[in-house]
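Input:
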Amino acid sequence: MNIRIASALVLALIAIAFICAALDLPPAGDHQAPAAQHVSPRYIEMAYQETATRNMVCAVLADYRSFDTLGEILVIVIAGIAIVYIVGISRPADEI
Amino acid sequence: MRKSFGSIILNVAFRHLTPFLMLYGVYVLVHGHYGPGGGFQAGALLGLAVVLVQMVQGTRAEWRIGVSGGIILACLGALIYLAIGLAPFIWGGNFLDYGVLPIAATPAEARALGILGIETGVTMGVMGVIIVMFDLLTRDNGEREE
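Output:
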């Protein structure tokens, strides 16, 4: 029971810390936010000149932030390999 | 999936549906530069075209990619992505900096072609994983990979 109370206290402390941090975030759609000051205008103004791609979302997803997309596709492929082992483990080994 | 649930109506209807489904998947892939779309959505469409054939025809399906084929397809997709990411090292660029690749006249056009290449890799990865998931979860007891 003590462990439950202790873990509840720890979770409450973490929740308070996160709420305090979230209160300091700029509101959604704030054009004075730091991210909207230099990153977003650069994407909007230069995306077509730099990537010859009319779809700005595609340019950001696959060029400016392609390292992120690499992580996403690796996660999906690793999940597929994990499914093979997890589902196949309940069957005889020669059937996989 | 040993038993299909296709009646004769489904068996006739899916033959007209599948080519358009696959064509739409390829369209979504190559149209990602100009509108909504891209690798993940195209992979879902192409994977579901293969899944549809297996649902209607069961083990009699001609298009049976199977678990090992799906894993090979998914890993090839990730490998294409990594290879296009590593290729700029040869021409002195950074990781995933396709602007330095000598495949187009200007760096911007090279970037557009590089985006298409990695989207193809993403498509193959998502398609393979969807086929693997469907094949494993609907496999009957004692059914073997052919």
